[in-house]
Amino acid sequence: MIKRITLLLLASVAVFAAQAGYPFKLCDVDYTLDTLYHAKVGPGTTQTSLRLLGSTAATQLRIYYLTIDRTNPNISFQAVVANDKMSGGATIAAQAESHSNAEKKLFCGINTDFFVTTGSAANGVSRVGAPVQTAIADGKIYLTNSSSRAWPNFYFENGEPFIAAVSHARGEVKAGENTARLSVVNAGVWNNSCALYTPEYYGTTDNASLAGSVAERTLELVEGTIGMGKTAKYKVTSDVSTNGDLRFSDGAYAISGRGTGVDFVKGLAIGDIIEITPRAFVGDKEIFPTDLCTGNPWILENGAVLDSEIDRGDASALHPRSSIGYNADKSKIVMMVIDGRYNLSNGVHTKQLAEMMSYAGATDAVNVDGGGSSTLYTSAFGERNHCSDGRPRAVSSGMFAVANTPEDNEIAELRFVEWAMEFPQYGIYTPKFYGYNQYGMLVDDDVQGVTLSCDANIGEIINEGTTFYGNGSGIGVLKGTYNGLEATIPVTVSTSEDAKIRLENVLIDNVREYPIEMISYVRANEMPISPIAFTWTSDNTEVATVGESTGVLKGLNDGSAVVTASLGDFAANINVTVEIPTGNTMPVVRDLPIENWTLQQTGGTGL
Q1: Which of 105, 137, 426, 429 has its CA 20 to 30 A from that of 166?
Q2: 3-state DSSP assignment of residue 193
């Protein structure tokens, strides 16, 4: 293996293992950890990809996470409910694109809520894609918890993140001097309370099982918005219905009362103005979340991995998983997906997910919807993980980082795609560069025209300033320059012991020469190595010769030979077969009667 050293230049919350083969223990299982990718993907935001290799094929993982600087002045956060409706679903990429505009760009995010997978409302509208628990997006309430036992919620209040089990059952409905309790929004009405139904619902109160024990009316919003702690005014627009299946048109609202709520709704008259105030509490403290998603279980709290009492029954099974959390001072948001159900990543249980979130810098985190739903997204590169369905799944909702910046495509910052290089001696590397605007948005993922330079001890620059040739050794700096901008990365050049000949077998003639290709690996990616680093020999020079210092293979006569590349204790072989042609041109097909052929022409004329 290439000699490994720790590059202290890279110490940051986002990169803990710059070197390959870093020993790592996850839930008492030994792995080696490689950081395959780490780059800035937006304002204050990096995306990191990890590979964990265990002792068997069944113990390997691919991990992808975003680290987002919440203190960056150009960033805010927004939850999205797909299609701005209770049901339907959309991919995370589609959600980001449909909710971006000239003033804001949802540039990265993750899937969140679990969602309904079967069934229809009483009016035939599909429920599929609806969140199963509380969902609040961009200040608008789509659903509040319909269960007496709330799942944990991840939410933002005044831009600050929190995780807690939020109660929504203490809202208020008021008509003159008469009041009632508001228990839910867009869910089955609780006893002795009222429920509010919004245009985002199914167009029916959908309480047919409560026929005769509910009272319902349609409403028109006349003032205010539907947000936690916000009072909106509505006008009553219909007579009372008790069948539990009150239909309301697109854009309309409805109220349903049960128990003591029946008397309140029946006491209303067409034209009455009522006030409705949804409220949210954590314990006895009222909160005002603007963007909220629901997960299960809560997996990490104050740095401790949790054994949650409330889970969906699959916490101990290996699946693709998604998680969202934050660090101790809440300055960083971490969004993570761990792949599963495919050959390079077998999935994790929630304790493993919690430990990986801790590794990424989170102290508090919640598990959100996983399986085929697990998707980590950036606007620059799309889905970053391998979705286990083989393609991104349409899901109910997502949580996104938002760049609140104007359009600006001028490059103001230059960065290497690589954050550091551990380089095989005599390796050849043509780097790619990312270009960012003044706000930190990635505007060019392959900047052209960058000129390289490097410290003399590690190598030289070839190909008119575009390629680094690592024919030196030690530690140095590789620099890229573009329009007055500079980018640098630390480079370690050392002898490679994992080099190999790219092909095991080759068939040649005596006409064309073949420069034998040598490669090594840098973070799972092939890198060409100059053949001049090796000494080359052929065991049958009557059949094939090879340049001792160049690695250029020549065929002489029919037969076979073994060509060897050696460097110190290292040796690698390529099997060579030489076949000499009998002429400058030779038929592909022989002795086939012309009457068995047909002539067809595509394009051109008179051929």
Answers
A1: 105
A2: strand
List, in sequence order, every residue forming a beta bridge with 34; answer none if it has no partner. 51
3-state secondary structure at position 82: helix
Please state the pTM of the whole predicted model.
Answer: 0.86
Host H or E run for residue 352:
helix 350-359
57 pLDDT higher than 80:
no
Cα–Cα distance measured from residue 385 to residue 374, given in angstroms and rounded to the nearest whole number = 8
Token pair for residue 268?
A: 């209303």
Query: Can you count the helices (H) and strands (E) in the chain?
Result: 3, 48
- In this prediction, residue 472 has a pLDDT band, given cuts at 50, 70 and 90, of very high
Q: % helix / strand / coil in the chain, to the nearest 5?
A: 5, 45, 50
Reading the block at residue 408, the tokens are: 């600006």
Separation CA 296–CA 304 (nearest Å)? 16
| Per-residue pLDDT, 582 | 84
pLDDT score of 475 more than 90 = yes
Residue showing tokens 């761990």: 338
Give the C-alpha distances (Å, rounded to integers) separating 552 from 376, 499, 505, 547: 45, 18, 15, 5
pLDDT reported for residue 562: 97
Cα angle 421, 422, 428; round to 5 = 75
What is the per-residue pLDDT for 145?
79
pLDDT, average across residues 80-98:
96
